[in-house]
Amino acid sequence: MLGFTFITDSKLSMYREKAIKSENLAKEIEEMQDKAASYKERLSELKSDIASKDKEILSVGKDLSESKEKIDALKENQKKLIKQMFEGGVSATVQLEDWKKSLEIKELDRTLLALTVDKIYIYENKQIKIHIRYQDMIEKMKVIRRFYAEHRTECRKEVE
Q: H or E element: which one contains 91?
């Protein structure tokens, strides 16, 4: 005797529904696996992008650090220059005051001589040559003054 069991229509219908549900679940699982693979791929791309951005940020940070060091060095140089200019200005002011006092020459004293004369050459033939201090600057100022006077005259002609 064979043990056959007859499946009734209601049982068959129930098995069909379970099979359809299983197929549907299998499709959903497959779709979810595809989505998961897509998400993993996108995540990998994002990680790569983040890594490259990190490198860029480090590079920019390094550049900024180097720029800051250069700026700090320039600031220090500027401070030194300002200090030198100030000290030179104070020195020049003192010197100008001494010159101003000595403009009313009544006699040639040591201060006036030191302020105005750079070198004195005395030759065997009793010739004396005096090199005046700042003579080259005085000549330059004369040239600038002449140029300015000519230029100013030309500018007036253009305006009129």
A: helix 9-102
